[in-house]
Automatic annotation (TrEMBL):
InterPro entries: ICL/PEPM, Pyrv/PenolPyrv_kinase-like_dom, Pyrv_kinase-like_dom_sf. The lineage of its organism: Bacteria, Bacillati, Bacillota, Bacilli, Bacillales. It comes from Paenibacillus tundrae. It comes from the Bacteria. This is 2-methylisocitrate lyase-like PEP mutase family enzyme. It holds the Pfam family PEP_mutase.
Amino acid sequence: MNANKRTIRDKAEQFHQYHVKGKPLVLVNVWDAGSAQTIQSTGAAAIATGSWSVAAAHGEQDGEALPFQLVLANLERITKSVDLPVTIDIEGGYGRSASELKQNISQIMDHGAVGINIEDQLPTGEGLYTVTEHCLRLSAARDAAEQAGIPLFINARTDLFLQQAPEQHNEALLNEAIARSKAYAEAGASGLFVPGLQQSQWIKKLCDQSPLPVNVMVTSPEPSPRQLAALGVARISYGPYPYLQVMEHLKALGQRIIMGS
């Protein structure tokens, strides 16, 4: 293994160690090399992209509308511009079959990523892969990582809670998430990502019962990392929130300049 591979492997091992229940890794999601460098300068432990933000920064919609080659090019610019471990949100992996997924993830690691988010939502955006189907996809991702000799952090995202309004979240949905976490762990996942889950008591129950460290997404200043840590969360990400905040600031700045000219 060459020096570059060793560096990536070391970063991947380091990234795994950051996921501690009750002492969460906090990730302020970025969208390009410039935003990644800015977040690195704040003292962040790692860099994470958000697919929504990356797509928007390229003038595209989320949902794998951005061509995969552009995803790779953007990733490479990010990994070459920072010294921290980089994890990438790859949505559904840009491939439905296990073989497509395996090939794509190999390319992602070749471009410097040490972690991925991969969701169980169907490409149509409605419904989820069955547990069996998605486990085959996760196993393919793990196979790609093992062949590359990199302990890739596979953050298995379940969209159970995103596909139901918060007022429709219930115990049955939570139990399904717990069941999926167990199956995904056996298939080779490293973490469980549950965007859309907001109720504190259910976050705690999931953290207590999931064999995988739990990642919660926050899209506002609250709840705070300290509050989520008390529930047992191991990773906190902010999704499109940073991008939206930056764009709002840019818009306000532009309006002041234009109106004052």
